[in-house]
Amino acid sequence: KYTDAKRGYELYLSENGGDDAYYTQRAEKELKACEWAIEKLANPDKSITVTHLDGGINTQFSEFGAVDSEEGLYYSSLSFTEVESENKPSKLLSKVLFSDDRSSGGGVLGEANKEKLHSAHTAFNADKTRMYYTICDYFLGNDIKCDLYYKDISSSGSYGEEVKLPASINLQSYTSTQPAAGYDAKTDQELLFFVTDKIGGAGKLDIWYSVVGE
User: Fold this and answer.
1) Sign (positive/negative) of CA torsion 135, 178, 59, 3?
2) What residues of the chain score a pLDDT lower than 70?
């Protein structure tokens, strides 16, 4: 409903634009995104085919963070329920899943999950010797704070011990999530891209990177 959304953002900007710098900037950005989507729907790129994955991978909840590989599909699903106690409402949790045929629902990938915590966003380096992932927990109600971890992978395919990335990436009062592994051919260095809301970015969640090993 991009046209409806566009109308809503235009209404906000006409009545409240300038009241709050962040929300004004956000509304202007989302308005441009709506206009882009409307144009793309009117003039689709016929060289691209989008396929909805059926067979149990997509549920009524959110499925996200997909990584396609030769061995199968790694993805995250916000479809798990954690019941804390009789006096507290149950909460949804995300888990990392793996489907080897991409046509049926995946099983929980034990190497990237922790009990009673969110697990999501797997990423592998170029030679598949390391897997990065995110572990998150609720705090202050429904807010979520995330930290980045990794496990090394042996030549036989077994996973090593879990390692939390250092404080330069996982700051105590900020969230770090959505890892993506990269490589700088000029410097012959592996890079880790991630999203964080720590101070020093453009504002809210921004994309940062770190040289692996530093």
Assistant:
1) positive
2) 83-88, 214
What pLDDT is stored for residue 106 in this prediction?
84
Alpha-carbon distance of 211 to 132, in angstroms, equals: 14
pLDDT per residue over 24-80, tens digit each?
Answer: 999 999 999 999 999 999 999 999 998 888 778 999 999 999 999 988 999 999 999
**Cα atoms in the 13 Å half-sphere on the side-chain side of 134:** 29
Residue 175 structure tokens: 């969230």
User: Distances in Å between the alpha carbon of 212 and those of 9, 13, 134?
Assistant: 40, 42, 16
Name 182's bridge partners.
191
Expressed in angstroms, the distance from the first to the final Cα of the chain is 45
pLDDT score of 83: 66
Rounded (5°) CA angle 55-61-63: 65
Residue 64: helix, strand or coil by DSSP? strand
The three-state secondary structure class of 14 is: helix
Cα gap 6→73, rounded to integer Å: 34
How many whole angstroms separate alpha carbon 146 and alpha carbon 197? Answer: 11
Structure tokens at 131: 């897997």
What's the pLDDT score for residue 88?
64
3-class state of residue 193 by DSSP: strand
